[in-house]
From TrEMBL:
Pyrroline-5-carboxylate reductase catalytic N-terminal domain residues: 3-98
Protein name from the UniProt record: Pyrroline-5-carboxylate reductase
Pfam family, one: F420_oxidored
Family recorded in the similarity comment: Belongs to the pyrroline-5-carboxylate reductase family.
Lineage per the UniProt record: Bacteria, Pseudomonadati, Pseudomonadota, Gammaproteobacteria, Lysobacterales
Organism the protein comes from: Rhodanobacter caeni
Length: 273
């Protein structure tokens, strides 16, 4: 079996490891480097994976190394990792927001690299991941990267790396937009007098049902929306209010801010010329 190392054992690493274990990867084939002792203990206790305090120790012997640290931590981990990665030449997968493939090549050397952007629903196997490969990634390695991310949910290859910040703005950050909308819907229902537990249950099930209609049926969001909207009915009244308040522009501005933040995060990691 392929040995996989995770550098950073936080939320996303945990989600991706959970998916791999569910899809048949043996815990013994997964090594995790994590500086926090309590997190290492929890990972071993909960998932049965082997944890290391040292990044190079986790990466030694791995055919796939997943970089799952915060973007700001990325330049610092090259110190301990570059040597071992140059010796073993694994497939390097980065899940860090913003961080570009050319930066990864500069820090870790010429390697097959896949930059990807998963999201938190990976925790329940319902994630969505965009992936982008550099020219050194073989067809077999591409298939391996896809297999790793497929275990967390849906995957899509993105040919143009410049669009990865848009993927981050769409599906990487997207779960938070959705939760924010649900919070607002629940709060409005409670303000109208509905008990909180009823508001929460009805809102959550509504989102589940709407999401399943989108993913399990063949209709797009626009036509599903139209089917809810009776002429001169309640939905029309709500949608007209959204339109008057500029919902599409609000969403476009928010996604623009997310995309720009991805680019800024990456730029902040470039050495001044
Ligand atoms: N949270 C999210 O929704 C998503 C996050 N991402 C990306 O995933 C990456 C990780 O994010 P999270 O899991 O949310 O963060 P997190 O903070 O939960 O996990 C990061 C882990 O890295 C560890 N760490 C810190 N310094 C380290 C070092 N020098 N060597 C090894 N490990 C070190 C931390 O102790 C922590 O456990 C980020 O780059 C983020 O942009 C990608 C998609 C979605
Ligand atoms: O907020 C962030 O920067 C990360 C990347 C996408 C989701 N969470």
């Amino acid at each position: 079996m392929t040995q996989i190392a995770f550098i950073g054992g936080g939320n996303m690493a945990r989600s991706l490891i959970g998916g791999l274990l569910k899809h048949g990867t043996a815990p013994g084939d997964i090594h995790v480097a994590e500086p926090m002792a309590t997190a290492r203990e929890a990972l071993t206790r909960d998932l049965g994976v082997t944890c290391h305090a040292d990044n190079a120790a986790a990466a030694a012997g791995a055919e796939v190394v997943v970089l799952a640290v915060k973007p700001q931590v990325m330049p610092a981990i090259q110190v301990g990792l570059r040597g071992i990665l140059q010796d073993t030449a694994p497939l390097l997968i980065s899940i860090a927001a913003g961080v570009r493939i050319d930066q990864l090549e500069r820090w870790f050397g010429a390697l097959p690299i896949v930059r990807c952007m998963p999201n938190t629903p990976a925790l329940i196997g319902a994630g969505a991941t965009g992936l982008c490969a550099n020219g050194a990634v073989s067809a077999a390695q591409k298939a391996k990267a896809q297999e790793v991310l497929d275990s967390a949910g849906l995957t899509r290859w993105i040919d143009d790396e410049a669009l990865m910040d848009t993927v981050t703005a769409l599906s990487g950050s997207g779960p938070a937009y959705f939760f924010a909308l649900v919070e607002a819907m629940e709060a409005a229902a409670v303000a109208q007098g509905l008990p909180r537990d009823a508001a929460r249950a009805l809102a959550a099930q509504t989102c589940l049902g709407a999401g399943r209609m989108l993913t399990e049926g063949s209709e797009d969001a626009g036509s599903l929306r139209q089917r809810v909207t009776s002429p001169n009915g309640t939905t029309q009244a709500a949608l007209e209010s959204f339109a008057a308040d500029g919902l599409p522009a609000i969403v476009a501005r928010a996604m623009g801010a997310a995309r720009q933040r991805g680019a800024e995060l990456a730029a902040s990691l470039d050495e001044p010329s």
